[in-house]
Amino acid sequence: MTAREQYERFDHLARLGWDLHSLGIPISLAVPVTGPPVLEMRAGNGTTIHITVIRRYCGWVFTWRPWWARLWRRDKWVIAHAANAAAIIAAEVNA
């Protein structure tokens, strides 16, 4: 992954984090020494949801599927440029 792609990934997560924070959802942005940054969101039932951003054929998407899920699940992603991405994620995670 190029430096520009790493910057874009961080930028998308920071923007989503701010939008989720504006909705009153507890979040934190984890930037590990190795590996991509991850947005940690506290769901309504108290579980921690890990949100990542990845590049797909349609552009950048946020995904919150479990790390062990091998299938691309339709209900576990949203396009990163969507104006209401934070609202969609909050609704899906807290459903």
Automatic annotation (TrEMBL):
Q: Spell out the protein name for this chain.
A: Uncharacterized protein
Q: Which organism is it from?
A: Nonomuraea purpurea
The lineage is: Bacteria, Bacillati, Actinomycetota, Actinomycetes, Streptosporangiales
